[in-house]
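Hello,

Our lab assistant flagged a job as stuck in the queue for most of the afternoon. It eventually completed. Since we weren't sure the result was trustworthy after the delay, we are filing this so someone can double-check. Below is the sequence as submitted and the structure that was eventually returned. Let us know if re-running is recommended.
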Amino acid sequence: MPYNYQYDMATSKATVVFKLLFRWRGSVWRAVYVEYLIWLSAYAILSCVYRFALNTEQQGKFEKFAEFCDKRLSYIPMNFMLGFFVTVVVNRWVTQFANLGMIDNIALFTSQLIKGNDDRGKNLRRNIVRYCVASQCLVFRDIHLGVRRRFPTLETMVAAGVNLRRLTAVSYACSSQEIRSFRTGLSLIWTYDWVPLPVMYPQLVFMAVHTYFFVCVFSRQFIITPTAANYTVVDLYFPIMSSLEFIFYVGWMKVAMELLNPFGEDDDDFDCNFLLDRNLTISLTAVDEAFDDIPDVKPDIFWDDTVSPLYSQETAGRAVNFYVGSANRAELSEDVTEIKMVPHPTNEKFDQYIKKPVRRRRTSIVSVVKTPQCETPASERKRSGSHLLHPLTIFQRKPATTIGMEEAARVNAKPRSSTDVGDGHLRTASYLNPTFFIETGELDRTPPLEPNGIGHLHVGGAKDHIFRSKSFNHTE
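-- returned structure --
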């Protein structure tokens, strides 16, 4: 199985990066060090021959050849070839990983649908899940070298308890959708092993990478003749930049090689032996020992109390990121006393496409009146001087506040359930407070006016206001 570094990457600190880079198991260093040492040895041998074994005339010819190779090294499209190849290989790897097959759902469905604590019911449940594991083992024997070595013959499967000496059909189990899905996944990974990528594709990519760095052995030599066109001003002896390029490109190629056949014996290949053991153990336990073993139905600790989540002392000091919109913090300026609502000027341009362009020009002036009695959790925190929500106040029940074109919002309304249908609107709980309700539904275009011509709109948000609207309708 691949080396699990998830725990090491729990944070994004700088020390974590260095900790990850210097891991050896499954690392890029382990993948490329053999080829890198071979390439570096060839580079060093050629450098010694160029510096000490060749005369001046021979050095000049070598320098021209190195310049020729260096100028035409870009003819090999390394980035394009490696990028496209790795993308194809990764997609195949993801598909095969998604279809490895976990038997948990089959075991749960079998335990639920086939009842009975007698020997017959127990035998049926155990045989269904064991046959599924046996079919998975038969597939893995043909595509995974490690499983093949573990079970070289069918008799070894019988000795391990995965299979019986005689396979019998379980016709009624084949009708289960979960078993069909399980079988489809096994068939898919079998097909991926049966029809791999055309061999010319990996041949082309691997040959391109190795040819590229074979040419680099000549083209990346430090030129010591001052009169040469490609004279190297700083003679470093050791090819630092070429070494980095080798690690990056060859490491990129090694990633594709690791993912090309995940059913091998490398460090990063699938551990199918463990998967078989796990499926056999989990499935037999689920349908036998854990059958009909359900948890007790008892009242929870918050049965007659307010829900009060607890944190460890170490995590209680962290800020809570509430599930609220970012625009919820927007507030009207203190000097805003009224808002004028006017139609968009582009409406008249669309009238030329309408047969009867009769449009009423409506203008509304909405006055803003603060309502201190309608307080939100944010205003309550400001008033109490608390910077963080206390855990006891997050889930407390409070009077419902509604948004809608009504005469007035009843602040002290009776608390409703999380989903309540009333007056043709669906009331849903706000995520900031489960009992702070927002009334949703199709709203009228204009608020219904009271006899005095003033309509009230109660808004629950960062700041509560009452909008008193005076509408003026004009018809051309």
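-- support follow-up --
The delay was a queue issue, not a problem with the job. The result is valid. The chain has 15 helices and six strands. The first strand starts at residue 338 and ends at 341.
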